[in-house]
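Task: sequence design from structure.
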């Protein structure tokens, strides 16, 4: 049986991965008849590889595509459920964050966590059909691209299918990142006094904070509220979150610009996008069924980002709970994060845990789901299990001159390749470089903002690179499979994202 690595995630842990992996092997709650028979997580020191049997994964993906195409109302209903479940999950996470855990006994802690885990299961697993549909083969993306190509040809238009697809599937609703940007712009718009604006020329962020509180206390209080509302955005699964100093650094750059103009552009962008989408649908003469399917894809993009944001928010809110659990169980945060959710609940009720087992998991373990059966292997057993798996390795020829992938955001750029996989890589990134990664994540958004273009191995319309590149309007090619094997730091490339092409220069 041939397996493939669907995704590689850094700073991962079982409190996150165990829930969706059980869900991959049971898709019946979402109206699907087929499920993936097996799934494997191979984690070493916080980096997890998510592996699936290739043939079975694609067979289920094709079944989901057939259901979407033949029953688009089912897909619309699933997107509505994702919104509903994640809204409840987000609110429950907030309540978790506000609880004083020092006043709760172990039983109460275990029950509170169990309650929110039930919401986590519904919120996270509801999006799994879209993961199977889009990861690796981007089935809905390719179906809609093929349709758009026929309409473009029929109407004799010069626009590429990738560009049309990108426009028509971009959500016209703010993500949390966009809400954060608008909130910070509102604060910046109030900083009009020349003396206060001059404050932000200082490199001493603590001094700026102290003097802003005296000179314009209302803006300082709003920044406090902003910090509490959005510090979690880059947290992912184990942090860190943004510190308040980060927002002062951003304000330093913002107050130098025409803030009112930035706000007006922000406020116009959705109306302009909806107008562009409607005009394009009319120009292409898209039929009612495919308008609905394009709307499904647009919602799919939005709900993927929303679901991820709700997860990041949850783990940020969970950290005080986990810190209290470490005190009671005599463990470290690293050890606690090696529990599955069910194991953490049981450990709190029992008031004890096997620290040696958790340490073994940190050094390397396999989480193997087969139907409803789950087993966790460590040490030699884990190594032997992985040696027996026939894992597909994408072929990469270092001498290849051109790479092809999918257009996530159209446009053209030239620049120098910078391989950016984690925050430690970001200092080598300069304005105008081409960011190349296996897959992007919120940790490296500051580097993405500097990029003239983005190129990734992994992809699909719901991947992080696709979502963020559209928000930033940066040309982006996703799903090349081999970009990180073929492109090296310092290499000059042209990125024709509109046509999904990356070309080495010289």
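Answer:
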């Amino acid at each position: 049986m041939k397996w493939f690595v669907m995704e590689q995630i850094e700073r991962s842990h079982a409190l996150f991965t165990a829930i969706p992996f059980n869900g991959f092997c049971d898709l019946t709650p979402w109206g699907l008849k087929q499920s993936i028979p097996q799934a494997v997580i191979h984690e070493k020191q916080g980096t997890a590889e998510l592996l699936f049997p290739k043939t079975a994964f694609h067979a289920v993906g094709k079944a989901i595509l057939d259901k979407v195409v033949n029953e688009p109302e089912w897909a619309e209903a699933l997107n509505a459920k994702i919104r509903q479940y994640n809204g409840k999950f987000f609110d429950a996470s907030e309540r978790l964050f506000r609880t004083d855990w020092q006043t709760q006994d172990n039983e109460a802690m275990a029950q509170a966590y169990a309650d929110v885990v039930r919401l986590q299961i519904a919120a996270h697993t509801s999006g799994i059909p879209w993961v199977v549909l889009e990861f690796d083969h981007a089935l809905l993306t390719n179906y809609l691209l093929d349709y758009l190509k026929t309409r473009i040809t029929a109407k004799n238009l010069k626009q590429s299918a990738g560009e049309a697809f990108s426009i028509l599937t971009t959500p016209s609703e703010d993500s949390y990142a966009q809400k954060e940007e608008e909130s910070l712009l509102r604060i910046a718009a109030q900083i009009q006094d020349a003396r206060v604006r001059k404050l932000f020329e200082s490199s001493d962020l603590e001094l700026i904070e102290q003097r802003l509180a005296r000179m314009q206390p209302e803006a300082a209080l709003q920044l406090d509220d902003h910090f509490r509302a959005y510090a979690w955005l880059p947290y992912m699964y184990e942090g860190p979150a943004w510190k308040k100093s980060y927002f002062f650094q951003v304000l330093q750059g913002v107050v130098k610009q025409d803030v009112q103009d930035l706000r007006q552009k922000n406020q116009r962008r959705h109306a302009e996008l909806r107008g562009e989408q409607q005009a394009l649908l009319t120009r292409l003469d898209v039929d009612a069924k495919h308008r609905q399917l394009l709307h499904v894809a647009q919602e799919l993009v939005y709900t993927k980002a929303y679901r991820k944001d709700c997860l990041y928010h949850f783990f940020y809110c969970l950290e005080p709970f986990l810190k209290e659990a470490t005190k009671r169980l005599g463990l470290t945060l690293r050890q606690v994060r090696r529990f599955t959710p069910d194991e953490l609940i049981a450990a709190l009720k029992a008031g004890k845990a096997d620290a040696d087992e958790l340490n073994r998991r940190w050094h390397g373990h396999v989480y193997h789901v087969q139907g409803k059966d789950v087993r966790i292997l460590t040490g030699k057993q884990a190594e032997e299990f992985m040696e027996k798996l026939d894992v597909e390795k994408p072929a990469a020829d270092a001498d290849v001159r051109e790479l092809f992938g999918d257009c996530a955001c159209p446009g053209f750029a030239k620049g120098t390749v910078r391989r950016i996989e984690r925050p430690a890589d970001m200092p080598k990134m300069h304005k105008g470089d081409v960011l190349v990664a296996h897959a992007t994540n919120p940790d490296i958004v500051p580097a993405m903002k500097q990029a003239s273009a983005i190129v990734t191995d992994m992809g699909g319309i719901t991947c992080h690179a696709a979502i963020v590149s559209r928000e930033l309007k940066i040309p982006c090619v996703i799903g090349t499979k081999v970009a990180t094997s073929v492109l090296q730091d310092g290499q000059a490339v042209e990125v024709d994202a509109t046509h999904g092409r990356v070309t080495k220069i010289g």
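The longest helix spans residues 288-329.
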